[in-house]
Design brief:
Elements (H helix, E strand, L loop, with lengths): L1 E2 L6 E2 L23 E15 L1 H7 L2 H21 L3 E6 L2 E6 L8 H27 L4 E15 L9 H7 L6 E5 L16 E4 L1
Parallel strand pairs: 6-7
Antiparallel strand pairs: 1-2, 3-5, 3-6, 4-5, 7-8
Length: about 200
């Protein structure tokens, strides 16, 4: 029998709560130790431009096929170089390199993926231009830095703000590569000067 620490009544061993006063009979497990984890990651944020105007020109079935072809092709280039698709935000793709397992060349993998995405888009455009008379354009941001996060059991989902801001700067069909400090729930330490280049 277990004596209740509050009312001192006896309870069967299997009881978790006192049958008389409802007080917990089993001590709460100790809290997991929280520690700070630092990891260098690279994010890609790729935004499809002009999709609203495109949807007004095409019927729903054609628009679905166009977007399906586009997203499938972009995702294939990301995973081909070891990236992980974090989420789709409207007409944008966010991917991370370096989580959950890091590689020494994550930043290089991301840049190669961005270049591959631009090259693959040209192939997609050739096909879509012949079939539907449309040409797609996107802007890609790549950002590398150190993420500082309190970790208990698993890595948090990466924030899109770093590369999303980078992708808003270049012209369509270009990519921006940068590393800038960020604050908030994560901290970014810059590794190199920001730069951008056209494909």
């Amino acid at each position: 029998m277990i004596n209740c620490p509050k009312c001192n009544e006896e309870n069967p061993p299997k009881f978790r709560l006192c049958g008389y006063c409802g007080a917990p009979l089993v001590a709460a497990p100790p809290a997991l130790q929280v520690r700070e984890v630092r990891r260098t990651v690279t994010l890609i944020f790729c935004d499809l431009k002009g999709s609203t105007a495109l949807a007004e020109r095409l019927d729903p079935e054609a628009m679905h096929e166009v977007k399906e072809r586009y997203f499938t092709t972009m995702a294939a280039e990301i995973t081909k170089h070891g990236g992980k698709i974090e989420k789709y935000i409207g007409d944008a793709i966010m991917a991370v390199f370096g989580l959950p397992l890091p590689h020494e060349d994550d930043a290089l993998r991301a840049v190669r993926a961005a270049a591959g995405m631009q090259a693959a888009l040209r192939g997609v455009d050739e096909d879509l231009s012949e079939r539907y008379g449309v040409v797609l354009a996107n802007r890609t941001g790549v950002n590398t830095g150190e993420v500082v996060r309190l970790r208990i059991r698993s890595w948090p989902r990466a924030t899109p703000s770093m590369s999303q801001r980078a992708s808003s700067r270049p012209r369509p069909k270009t990519r921006s590569i940068s590393a800038k400090p960020r604050t908030g729930w994560c901290a970014m330490r810059s590794r190199s000067k920001a730069s951008s280049r056209s494909s």
